[in-house]
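Subject: Predicted fold for KpsF/GutQ family sugar-phosphate isomerase, 336 residues

User T.R. writes:
Posting the sequence so we have a shared reference for the thread.
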Amino acid sequence: MSLRSIDASLTGDSAILDSIGRSLATTVDGANALATSFANDAVFARNLADAVTLIGERNGRVVVSGVGKSGHIGRKIAATMASTGTSAYFVHPTEASHGDLGMITSDDLLILLSWSGETVELGNMLTYAQRFKVPVISLTSNRDSLLARHSTVPIVLPKVVEACPHGLAPTTSALLQLAVGDALAIALLERRGFSAEDFKTFHPGGKLGAQLLLVGELGHRGEAMPLLPLGAQMGQALIEMSSKGFGVVGVVGKDGKLAGVITDGDLRRHMSDGLLQQTVEAIMSVKPRVISPQLLASAAMQVMQASKVTVLFLVDETETPVGILHIHDLLRAGVA
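User M.O. replies:
I've generated the C-alpha cells; pasting them so everyone works from the same file.
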C-alpha cells in the first residue's frame, strides 16, 4: 500500500480520527485542570511543596505503591525518582500484605496512589504506616477518602473526565498521577542540586549514558595530539597533520599554552610556492575554539555542530592542551 493510499484511508475513516481527537483533547483538558489547580488552589500547591520537603528531609527511602493502573504509574514514579537521586522503589500492596511490609522501615516514606482513595489493598500499608509512624503522601482525587484522611500529606488531584467513553479505563487520571510524580521527582532533583554528572552515575548504558560521558574520557592524549611549538616550519606542520590524522595541528607557546591552530582550511587559504618555508605562526588561526575535558559529550557535539567543526582541542584551566577530540570519537561512543 502506498503512502498516498494510507493517507486516504485514514482521512476517510473519520470515526477513528474523531475518537483519537477526542482522547487527545480530553488529555489536554486534564493537564490544564492540573495546572489550574496548582495556580489557584493554595492548599494543593502547599501540599505539593510539603511533599517535596518531607521527602527531602527523610533519611530512608521512598516506597511507592498502588494497584492496577495506579500501580503501573507508581512503578514509573519510583523509577524516575531513583534515577534522579531519590532512593525509591515500588512495592505491590498485595505482596506487602504477605511479608514485604518488612522491607519498609520507620526511616522510610510511603507514596500511595489511588484515584478513588478507597483501594482496599492499601489498607494494610496504611495500618503499618500508622503503627510505625511512617509518613504517607497520597495521590488521590477524593479528599474525603480513607487514604486522604490518613495521609501525612494528601495531594488531592482535580477530578477530570477520562478519555474512555465509559469513564472506566484510567486514562486522564493516570496522566495526572504521572505528571505530579514527575514534578515531585524534578523538584527533589533541583532541591539537592543533582547534576548531570550525578545523573551519569545512574545511567551508564545506552545512548543516554554516552551523552553523559565527559569528553576527557573520549579524547586522545599524549603523543596522539598533533602539536608543534611556535617557530616551527610549515613543512613540519604538514607532516604532523598527516601523521596524526586529525586534519589540524595545534601550536603551543613556550608557556605550554595553546597559541593557535592550523587547519586544512588555513592551508588552502595560504597556498603558495613559499608555504613550506613559512613558520606556523604566520599561518595559524589565533584564539581557537577549545573545550574543557570536563564538558559532557552531548555538549561537545552541540559545540561542534553549532561551530561547524569536526575537531576540538581539550585544554585545562591554564589553557594547556591536554587532549584532542574528533567528531568520530563522539559518533563511535553513540552520542549522536
